[in-house]
């Protein structure tokens, strides 16, 4: 409870700090929104020209894109400190987190809150609503709850991937490229149906970095089209997989922290 209160207190401080420069904040948010809007529009133009992609319609792809965009953007906001961690190790800043009487992981979560990423969240929600309208998905309570749980599961899973890739910096300081592959790379992959990829790539996002469980499989709950023929229960494993991976990420972090060698400064 103490950490929850402290977290929201820090959010309030961060928000007030960013609101000191409102024009700059709004401009930054708008830039993020427009950047990802251009990306989405480009994808939609291509899909519209070719009439979809391997049996998947433009609106089905938009639905997947919207879900993973919101989940990823929320993870970028909440776990941004872990993205900065490799540089902290490189610059000898980690010790200051370790000597404070607060869990270092919480400090990293609260270290930075890039609220301009709300522009990406807003875009994802708009795309999701756009897709839902055209797919004629009924906005019933069960469907809304399923979508919310799926998005939160995706946020937790991507948070776990940020933690894992940050923990690698305990051994290899220059781990940002690996972080990019695990997070932004998989984001780009599951923005499309995984059935369009070769089996080896599908197996990576199902069994190794299991991001398919927070986008592709849950989306099948709303579609009757499933070219891969996976068991139906795969569609509902997202929360379980996310919690498991997040728990493993914390264990991996603790394992790496025990092997951390202070810079002594």
UniProtKB/TrEMBL annotation:
The chain crosses the membrane at residues 21-46, 58-79, 115-133, 145-173, 204-224, 236-257. Keywords: Membrane, Transmembrane, Transmembrane helix. The keyword Cytoplasm does not apply. InterPro entries: ABC-2_transporter-like (IPR010390). PANTHER family: INTEGRAL MEMBRANE TRANSPORT PROTEIN (PTHR36833:SF1), SLR0610 PROTEIN-RELATED (PTHR36833). This is ABC transporter permease.
